[in-house]
Amino acid sequence: MNKQEPRVSIGLPVYNGERFLEAALDSLLSQTYTDFELIISDNASTDRTKEICRVYAVKDQRVRYFRNTKNLGVSANFNRVFQLSSGDYFKWASADDLCKPEHLARCLDVLENDDSVVLACPKTAFIDASGRTLDITDPGWNLRSEAAHERLRYVIRAGHWVNPHYGLIRASELAKTRLMPAYPGGDYRLLAELTLRGKFVEISEYLFLRRIHPGASSQNLTNLTWTMEFQTGDRQRMCLPFWNLNVDHFLTIAKSELPLRYKLSLFGSLVRVMWWQHRRLLQELKVGFMFYWDRLNPRTSCTR
Predict the structure, then answer these.
(1) What structural domains and CATH numbers belong to the chain?
(2) Is the dihedral of CA 101, 14, 220, 232 positive or negative?
(3) What are the residues whose beta carbons fall under 8 Å from the beta carbon of 261, sequence distance 6 or more?
(4) pLDDT one-digit tens code per residue, 187-241
(5) DSSP secondary-structure letter at 217?
(6) How crowded is the C-beta side of 72, counted as CA atoms within 13 Å?
(7) CB-CB contact of 184 with 227 (8 Å)
(8) What is the pLDDT of residue 29?
(9) Nearest Cα residue to 251 out of 295, 298, 189, 294
């Protein structure tokens, strides 16, 4: 008789995560809800990540460890763990962060009891490298409106922490999205697509601990070379993240099944956001121009 598939899949993409990895794995394997698989995709780490993961895979049969032959970049690795999953519900996890024991159980309870909800996540508390609580406020993502266009509008206007993609998501609905794109801030695109498929419920308890430290991607967004290598595994690639995101928001609106009046209203919101951020858009164009100018004129760049 074939083994029954777990109800929940957790996907943990990791690259050189040895510093916090064991604590992250312990927090996931200590969940009060236990019917899950934990899929780890190691992005060709060069530290002790491989050894740590193999130890956990041996001692807990729920752990499935995969290792990529080369660094695919964080976005492709995020998508890989979902593609390897089999559960009805899916959760991404990070090698830096911690989940309190009730995290899965509380999120699953919401999804099991309300078919209109596509994503459930707890409130987020922020900690530093030593585990001390940080004084950071987060407006959250409690998107319970019955109107899909208002849920989408919230994502378009949002500029705060993107924590709900570490919540629990209906796998069948996540599979209908374009998943994670290879540019910084691409998780906003994913959330935008998911809002058209259902509500987000934010649980009142602080069950997710997001770790802020110098090596975290959120702390290196101004270092474009580091960021692009982190996103794609290739430091020679360049993208214009805010332009990419706004183009993707435009496509999400245009391809949706929303009535025309709502689409036009959302296009208006998108244009206003782009106007508010026009300096950032212009700066990205300048950085992109200089990047490709240096590629086409190597001698000129060497003499600066």
Answers:
(1) 8-218 (3.90.550.10), 222-302 (no CATH)
(2) negative
(3) none
(4) 999 999 999 999 999 999 999 999 998 766 555 455 566 666 667 666 667 778 8
(5) G
(6) 18
(7) yes
(8) 98
(9) 189
